[in-house]
Each structure stands twice: as C-alpha cells, then as structure tokens.
C-alpha cells in the first residue's frame, strides 16, 4: 500500500495535480506508522510519539480548509516539533552522555558549528517571508529540533557503531535533507521535482526508522544499551 500510494503521488505530482498529490503524500507516513504498531508487540514510547505526532500533522492537510490558517500553521508545526523532540529523547536515552562529552569533544565542536551554519542558512531563506514574531520563533525551534536529532543520531552511531544506530543516522540524514529541500520548495521555487525529492527522502527516512525498530543495540563501551 505504501508503494502504491507513493507511485500515485509521483504520477499526480508530475501531472501538476496538486490536490491528489498532496492527499496521497499525507497518507504514506500514517500507513507506515500503522505498520509499525502492527509489527511491534512492545512499541517504544518515544518512537511512538514521534510517529503519531508526525502522522497527525501530515493528516491535518485534510482539514486545512475548515480551520484558520494560523491555527493550522501553529498546531501542525508544533506537532512536528514534538515529534522531533520525542525522537531526540529516544536517541539520547541510548547514549552515555558522560562518555560522549569525554571522548567526542572535537565531534561536538564540529557538529555545533555545522548546526549553526545550517540553521543560519535555513533562517535566511525564510526570513524574507516572515516577520519577527511567533511564526519566526516556531521556524527557529523547528529547525533547531530537527538539527539536534541529526547531531544526536550521528553521535549515537559513533558511540554504538552497529546497524541499528546506522539506520537511525541514515533516517535522520534523509529527513534533514528532505526538510531543507521542502523549505526550498515552499519559499524559493514551487517545482514538481523539488516536492518529489522532498517526499521521497521523507519516505526513505521513515523506511530506515521502521527497519531499525526491529533491531537491538549491542553491548558497547562496557555498557548495555536498551533495545529501544
């Protein structure tokens, strides 16, 4: 069903049928979420919150015409932020922060600089379209939470060095690239290819996240990490 919805999205997107492309796009991730809950007997709390919040925000596209735009904007983006924070919490719970700060000082400095640069670029793209108000800070918090997920997933991969952590990092990398391309699509050029690429990367990210859910972390650095 996910493959069929994705193919339908691609066909409608490149035929400039925005209504059906958007509708099918909004259904893909909720379907992956349902598959996760069907497959997992003991779903992880924080990963579940991530999937549910992200899916609900996607599904809000079906009620956008029945609510004020500002409410749709604030509620939808707040759900995405909550989703990223839940995913961040899930990743951090599998880390030993004392070990990270002791052994990955240079990595932390490089990641901090990279995050500041990417955040600066993203804010510069949206600045001409936003006033310095609550919407501006929503965008800022959104970008920060997304970049923190990417940084935490990379540190988690360095720390765990296993297939599960690699899949989480690849998923986080794909979703960040998806968000960056999505910003370009919304604010720079509404080209079909950009939206196709953004959605494709998001689906790929959720595929990686879905696959990692069935794997366990191994004993790393003398510590036993949880299977969540």
What share of the residues lie within helices? over 70%
Biggest sheet overview: 2 strands, antiparallel
Indicate the mean pLDDT. Answer: 88
Regions with pLDDT < 50 over 5+ consecutive residues?
A: 219-227
Radius of gyration over C-alpha positions, nearest whole angstrom: 18 Å
**What is the tally of helical segments?**
9
Given helix and strand content, the structural type is mainly alpha
Q: What is the strand tally?
A: 2
Q: Give the end-to-end Cα distance, rounded to a whole number of Å.
A: 27 Å
The backbone outline, from C-alpha atoms, is: globular
Sheet with most strands: strand arrangement: 1-2
Strand content: under 5%
The secondary-structure element order is HHHHHHHHHEE
Description of the structure:
With 228 residues, this protein is an all-alpha fold. It has a domain at 68-224. Helix content is 77%, strand content 2%. It has a two-stranded antiparallel sheet with strand order 1-2. The two termini are 27 Å apart.
Give a short synopsis of this structure:
This protein is mostly helical and 228 residues long. It is built from nine helices and two strands; from the N terminus they run H-H-H-H-H-H-H-H-H-E-E.
List the topology elements:
Elements: H1 2-14, H2 18-39, H3 45-59, H4 69-92, H5 97-103, H6 105-126, H7 134-160, H8 163-187, H9 192-212, E1 219-220, E2 223-224
Antiparallel strand pairs: 1-2
Helix pairs in contact: 1-2, 1-9, 2-3, 2-9, 3-4, 4-7, 6-7, 7-8, 8-9
Which key features would you list for this structure?
228 residues, mainly alpha, two-stranded antiparallel ribbon, 2% strand
């Amino acid at each position: 069903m996910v493959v069929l919805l994705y193919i339908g999205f691609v066909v409608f997107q490149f035929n400039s049928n925005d209504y059906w492309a958007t509708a099918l796009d909004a259904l893909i991730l909720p379907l992956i979420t349902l598959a996760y809950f069907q497959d997992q007997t003991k779903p992880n709390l924080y990963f579940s919150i991530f999937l549910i919040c992200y899916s609900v925000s996607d599904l809000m596209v079906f009620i956008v015409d029945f609510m004020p735009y500002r409410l749709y904007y604030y509620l939808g983006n707040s759900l995405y932020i909550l989703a990223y924070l839940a995913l961040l919490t899930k990743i951090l719970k599998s880390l030993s922060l004392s070990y990270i700060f002791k052994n990955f000082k240079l990595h932390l400095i490089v990641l901090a600089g990279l995050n500041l640069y990417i955040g600066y670029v993203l804010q510069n793209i949206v600045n001409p379209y936003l006033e310095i108000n609550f919407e501006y800070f929503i965008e800022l918090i959104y970008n920060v939470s997304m970049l923190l997920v990417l940084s935490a997933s990379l540190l988690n991969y360095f720390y765990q060095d296993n297939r599960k952590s690699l899949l989480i990092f690849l998923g986080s990398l794909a979703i960040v690239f998806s968000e960056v391309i999505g910003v370009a699509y919304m604010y720079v050029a509404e080209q079909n290819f950009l939206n196709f690429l953004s959605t494709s990367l998001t689906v790929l990210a959720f595929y990686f996240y879905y696959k990692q859910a069935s794997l366990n972390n191994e004993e790393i650095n003398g510590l036993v990490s949880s299977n969540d």
